[in-house]
Amino acid sequence: MTAQIIMANLDGDKTWSLDSYHKRGGYEALKKVLREKISAQQIIAEVKKSDLRGRGGAGFPTGLKWSFMPYQFPIDKYLVCNSDEGEPGTFKDRDILRYNPHILIEGMAIASYTLGVKTAYNYIHGEVWDCYQRMEEAIAEARTAGYIGKNVLGSDFSFELHNHFGHGAYIVGEETAMLESLEGKKGQPRFKPPFPASFGLYGKPTTVNNTETLSNIPYIALHGGEKFLALGKPNNGGTKIFSVSGHVCKPGNYEVSLGTPFSALLEMAGGMRAGRKLKACIPGGSSMPVLPADVMMNTNMDYDSIAKAGSALGSGAVIIMDDSVCMVRALERLSYFYFEESCGQCTPCREGTGWLYRVVHRIEHGEGRAEDLDLLLSVADNIQGHTICALGEAAALPVKSFVKHFRDEFQHHIDHKSCMVPSSL
Amino acid sequence: MLSQNALSKIDHEISKYPSGRKQSAVMAALRIAQEERGWLSTEIMDEIATYLEIPSIAVYEVASFYNMYNTAPVGKYKISICTNLPCALTGANKVAQHLKKKLGVGFKETTTDGKFTLQEGECFGACGDAPVFLVNDKRMCSFMTIELVDKILGELE
Ligand SMILES: Cc1cc2nc3c(=O)[nH]c(=O)nc-3n(C[C@H](O)[C@H](O)[C@H](O)COP(=O)(O)O)c2cc1C
Ligand code: SF4
Ligand code: FES
User: Fold this and answer.
1) Where are the strands (E) in A2-104, listed by range?
2) What pTM does this model have?
3) Ligand 2 centroid to A397 CA: how many Å?
4) Which strand (E) or helix (H) includes residue A36?
5) What is the rounded distance in angstroms from the CA atom of residue B97 to the CA atom of residue B113?
6) Quick check: A283 and A262 in contact, CB under 8 A?
7) How many angstroms away from the CA of A343 is the closest CA of chain B?
8) Residue A165 is nearest to which of B22, B27, B124, comparing CB atoms?
9) In-domain check, residue B126
């Protein structure tokens, strides 16, 4: 099924304008919610029914997350939208922000109404200035039209929405680091518990959701959870935007039903470059395990299927590598990234990511030692499960999966001090 | 001293946060100062600290934590090229090589005429347009090839 929710009808002129969003049926969901005074419990029940899972990486059920908020209590609470898209391979939120900003605003308005939030923030990745400007304009438009501010559309619901612009730190994508950053501090993750739903921004109950997650809310509020669920499959409701990058003919964002076969997605992205074969794919952003071609070709694109295949859907970033890629070199670059972006708070992550990078680097450069593969795996083991946040996990998983599936290439580098493939990187 | 224009932009950012939470505007204040000054000297950071009524150290910490703040002078044009895996798969390293050769500098270096600083960056969230680089933090240059690099460099006065 090729249903679309967020990217539907986005081929027109100035699709980001309020006018264009109205023509696509925009803000009808918010109007309905306010007109019919739909209760928070009802909306949360619909979101639960929809089987919408967080699109930011962890895939946590959104309805369940919302039910953790003390939404019925009249205390300060916050909603934070995570538009700090920095997971290598992921570029879907950028397109939501620049081509369909009002769908996010409407989703955040409904979420704020539901969760009893008076102030919401949208934290935007520092490298996409045009998206920040576009969101600032969209918020101004929405405020003028009465969708943001005091007594939204004449109802007794009031809420404010502001953009916060990041400045280049991958770790701030982690939700508690994001809260620190919003408070004007270094973006270092907090210990959990307490979870943001009880102690979040400025110590107040806070919900953090990804841009794409929130952009699905208007559809669910308007059409109901069941209809959303039916676009995907049980436990994997709705559609998903997959960012396809690397060695395909048409890299880009493709919104498809969850459960779509990988082979169909690959075809939509133009297939492999002429004369080249699929070698490997990271199906959920660089932090997830890599899978070899034959496994991918038999996998469907949904949370459960990809987990069963041995990886994770993550952020929906599909990195495609063909047979010209040296897997040692590919892993070297990823390991450098985690080393560079570790915030340094936990010793296993700070030291371990450095070790991983240096060992892969020496294998790639013909200085690998016989014991290096075991060393890599043991360093990865020592990071996993011993850190404050999931960046440690994210650094370890690629290493383990690359060595597991492409061990012969690593071994060849160590034994022959040379590469099996003509690397194009 | 920051200009009146910069201060009023900072005031706008402060207004986004609850009263007593001026510190939340520190990232924006640093960005606005960098837009005006090119880089963040200690004096400017101290001025921001005073303006936001927070200790100077709190400002220094933020400026050094986030990659896009220039805590030392940079060239007129700062070029940050993404070399992360998705960009590398589509030729980012060749483009980076070309930039280095053409400008005669390595990463984290500035040309002797002070015109260009070259940097390596991590994923910009634009991998569908790979390879990409950013000019002065704001201008995203997409689908870079050797020819396009030459054209863009030629246009930067
Ligand atoms: C190192 C790290 C980086 C992350 N980066 C992002 C990101 O760029 N965008 C995002 O939405 N979530 C990111 N996350 C996940 C967030 O912590 C959080 O789970 C998510 O924003 C929740 O929203 P969701 O439930 O709607 O997915 C990251 C997590 C970690 C550990
Ligand atoms: S796991 Fe790494 S990135 Fe996360 S808090 Fe610890 S040191 Fe920082
Ligand atoms: S890897 Fe270069 S923009 Fe994402």
Assistant:
1) 78-83
2) 0.97
3) 15
4) none
5) 20
6) yes
7) 9
8) B27
9) yes
